[in-house]
Amino acid sequence: MTARLTVTDTGALEKAILVNDAGAIVTDTVRGTGEREFCDYSLLTSVTIPDSVTSIGDGAFSGCDWLSGVVIPETVTHIGDRAFFDCYSLEAVTIPGTVTSVGDEAFAECNQMESAAILGSATSIGARAFAWCEFLVISAPAGSPAEQYARSNGITFNTLG
Q: Are 105 and 83 in contact (CB under 8 A)?
C-alpha cells in the first residue's frame, strides 16, 4: 500500500486526513506544513504542495522512506530544518526561486538524490542541507549561494542558464 499527498485549500495546516488511493490530504485551512507534520509516514510516495503554502516546517516530511517525488510551489519561501531528512527514495528536487532559506539538514541523508535544482539565489542554505547525498549534482545560477554551498561541500555543481 502506498499513498500520495496533495494538500488543498488555504489557511494554516492543523489537521489532515490521508486518503490512500485518491492521494489527497483535505484540510479546512492550509498555509504551511507544521513541524514534523508527516514525519515517518512510510507509505507516502509523492507530495504536491499547493500554492497556498508559504513554508515547509522543521522535520515536516523527515523519515518518509518511500517519498520519491515532491512538487514545491513558487509560493514557498522557507524550507525548515530536516524538512525532508532521511527521505532516502527522493531522487530529485526543484527549489523555486522564491525560496530564500533552506534549513539545516533539510535534504540530508536523501541517499538516492541525484539532482537539486535551486532556481533562485536562496540567501541562506543551512549547514549540511544536502549532507550524505553521495550522487548529488546541484544546479543553480552562477555566483549564487547555492554554487558557494556546493563548492565548499565538495558537491558537483552545474550552472543554470
A: no
